[in-house]
Amino acid sequence: MSAFDFDLFVIGGGSGGVRAARMAAQRGARVALAETLGQDGLGGTCVNVGCIPKKLYSYAAHYHDGFEEARGYGWEHDSAPRLNWTTLKANRAKEISRLNGVYGNLLRGSGVTVFDGFARIDGEHAITLATLHADGSPGHQNFTAKNILIATGGTPHVPHFVGQDNVITSNDIFDLEPFPQRLLVVGGGYIACEFASIFNGLGAQVTQLYRGEQVLRGFDDEIRHFVAAEIIKSGVDLRLNAGVVDIRKTPEGLRVELEDGNLVVADAVLYATGRVPNVHGLGLDTVGVTQGGQNEVIVNAHYQTNVPSIYAVGDVTNRVQLTPVALGEAMVVVDHLFGPAAGKPPRSMDYDFIPTAVFTHPNIGTVGFSEAAAREKFGQVTIFRSEFKALKHTLSGSTERTLMKLVVDTATDRVVGLHMVGAEAGEIVQGFAVAMKAGATKAMFDSTIGIHPTAAEEFVTMREPVKA
Known about the structure:
The protein is 30% helix and 25% strand.
């Protein structure tokens, strides 16, 4: 009989935590998972206030252009379509609730004990769970576990300034009431750019401010400049090298004073200026878990902290903040603690060639090195580039353009960077990511037959390198 209540206690019901709990239970471990279900529900940021609702709203925004583009294909409609914001919100909420239930069924069906409460680590093997009784009064339960997994994710960060209480974050944007006819977005990362595009498409007048010289720092420079131009062309008032001094409520709306002396009046101000690890109140200092400069949990290759019984995965470690990465990290922990699945080797995580998409309008899809990073790592690189109007828009009337780019290590001919701005970029890049992970060379790309007519075929038909 084990001396512990559980073999694994997972704190956090997001993607990483749910995956680790399910797979560990399927290996025969006694597993518990704690999540404050009254706040969002199972699924974490991705399901509740991240990837899923954001993509649904992105689809909704694309219909605005789609109605107009249909005219070029002979579809006639006399009156302008109108967004019913209440219907969109209700349908989104219904789908998220369904997914919350799916996650719960998967956990309980695997034998995981699910607790509704806030878990705090009180010792190397001790957890205190804060709960509410049926009458609403607070209570607590104490448990022990051989191993503890922290999977509490991240949370939006808003800097301190005058009027901070007047802003919202990405956690709040999906249920705004009423619909913001004038939206100010502050930030230049992918979350800020996505919501600027989405609400512009939904019909809001959107202004986006970023203190840097160009949005999407860390992405390929050519991609950054190209997508910024497309975002501006679509109607977003993108202002670079711009910051906020203060925000005040007025009868006309939120009055935002900028560092250059200009004023913006908005119905809502969305701050998307970064995310920080969600560690407040976890008790990490109690047990001496080492944290970094942004309070991220420091882990080794097995996602083990300096306290041997405590592990951490996902955004709380502040490595690569992507849902599929958290899922992969969770499987490394499960294999390490409970052994791999029958006939399979133990898993490890490789952070090279992780594909990602940004759901701006148009989308970005990218995998591998930017041109600048590739030059730094490999020295001499060869660049292939193609920019064009997609076939769809030869009749649609849209001026949207597509950009595709390959970065090749000249010495080995290996394709080390692949970038795209255009419709369904994420769907296209996913397949090429497999080839790049396998070490595909430019010669292999060249020898692959393209599917015609598609935008994706451009990646295997680029023959002339860009002159240095």
